[in-house]
Specification:
Layout lengths: L11 E2 L2 E2 L6 H5 L7 E2 L19 H26 L13 H8 L7 E3 L5 H6 L4 H8 L24 H15 L5 E6 L6 H12 L4 E7 L2 E2 L2 E2 H4 L8 H5 L3 E5 L3 H16 L5 E6 L18 H7 L4 H11 L5 H23 L19 H20 L1
Parallel strand pairs: 3-9, 4-5, 5-6, 6-10, 9-10
Antiparallel strand pairs: 1-2, 7-8
């Protein structure tokens, strides 16, 4: 374990940076308090104005538009999978506020370390729609980010990305930069060893990481209550010596407020934060899953009115910031963009074999060179056989 880290620009002592006290939000919603941060209720009414984030009307509307786009991208992908045109994919519906609200708190040069259920966050941080559909189609190009987009590709193995996030945070400290890493995972992921290793490293080395748990109630088919005895995921932060906060993950305002505070906290040298966003996966775990086997329709109906899109839309309508004509126009625009992206990606055909070996290293290792040669020889033999 490397122990040498370059001194950052900020001076940190006992939870204070340059004399600035630790966040009042994290004190008010301490992980052991049992309190959950909520700002707006399911009808779009402000519950707690004292915790309303400093967010402009323009940014709020852009956030809602991205949530709507993410829903359309997700539904289109599911429809295509049911038609046999895409492979198995994770369903995002219901988690748009957690994804978009958290990514909105990042700067463009910050790092995104995804799991696999945050479409809105990816697009907010710069992923083209085409890249998402390439990934769904199993094309290697779906794991390649455009130049200037600081994001890892999606991570299907559970929580394996958490140590990666800690490593990026360590590198940021080593280089004396002021970037932040936002890392996503699910509630089931917090039972994995990689979760503990990643958070421990980040805490010990004061890495500028925000660990964001999408607690959508089920680790595939196992309810949260059966995969951990902790009363909340946020409480797990205590064992690592870092702030933890539980938020209403279907409340864009609460998610943005908590993540913005956590990002600022990490950027100014205080180290990592753990956020638990309490949300609900309205669809299946993946398109190969049948949630009727492990949850009831009554439970699903309880969550329907808590749809994060409905909540923000009601708020915007009440404030005169949005109307039905704008909604229709935006949906039509999104549908056209998505259709264009799908047609382009589907038209690319099967994954070119050379792409399996590109974008991993600047120069292939000897082992990968041998694997590439073996594969090419096999395909040539198969082609000759007809």
């Amino acid at each position: 374990m490397a122990t040498e880290t370059k001194t950052k620009k900020t001076e940190k002592t006992n939870g204070a940076v340059n004399g600035k006290a630790a966040s009042s939000l994290f004190e008010a919603f301490d992980a052991t308090s049992g309190h959950k941060l909520e700002v707006v209720d399911p009808n779009g009414k402000v519950l707690h104005p004292e915790w309303m984030p400093d967010i402009s009307d323009e940014l709020l509307v852009e956030g809602y538009k991205m949530m709507r786009l993410a829903r359309i991208v997700d539904l289109k992908a599911v429809n295509l999978q049911r038609q046999g045109k895409l492979y198995t994919l994770p369903v995002n519906r219901g988690q748009e506020a957690a994804a978009v609200g958290s990514a909105m708190a990042l700067r463009n040069d910050d790092w995104l370390v995804p799991a696999f259920r945050e479409i809105g966050a990816y697009m907010w941080h710069g992923w083209p729609i085409e890249t998402l559909y390439k990934w769904y189609l199993g094309l290697e190009a779906g794991a390649v980010m455009p130049e200037g987009v600081n994001s890892l590709p999606t991570s299907v193995p559970i929580s394996s990305q958490v140590p990666h996030a800690a490593g990026i945070g360590h590198a940021i400290n080593y280089k004396g930069l002021d970037q932040v890493v936002l890392c996503y995972f699910g509630d089931g992921g917090t039972s994995e060893g990689d979760f503990s290793e990643g958070l421990n490293w980040a805490a010990v080395f004061n890495c500028p990481c925000v660990f964001f748990c999408n607690n959508n109630q089920y680790a595939i088919s196992v309810p949260r209550e059966l995969q951990t005895k902790a009363q909340t995921i946020a409480q797990k932060a205590v064992g690592f010596g870092l702030p933890g906060i539980q938020v209403d993950g279907n409340d864009l305002f609460a998610v943005y407020r908590a993540t913005k505070e956590a990002v600022d906290y990490a950027r100014t040298g205080n180290g990592p934060v753990l956020i638990e966003a309490v949300t609900y996966r309205m669809g299946a775990h993946t398109t190969s899953d049948d949630p009727t086997k492990y949850r009831t329709s009554e439970e699903e109906k309880i969550w329907e009115p808590r749809d994060p899109l409905l909540r923000v839309k009601k708020y915007l309508l009440d404030k005169g910031l949005w109307n039905d004509a704008q909604e229709t126009a935006w949906e039509e625009s999104c549908a056209a963009k998505v259709d264009e992206a799908v047609q382009h990606v589907v038209g690319l055909g099967p994954n070119p074999i050379p792409e399996l070996f590109e974008d991993q290293y600047e120069h292939l290792t000897n082992s990968l060179e041998e694997q590439k040669a073996d594969l090419e020889a096999f395909l040539a033999w198969q082609s000759r056989r007809g």
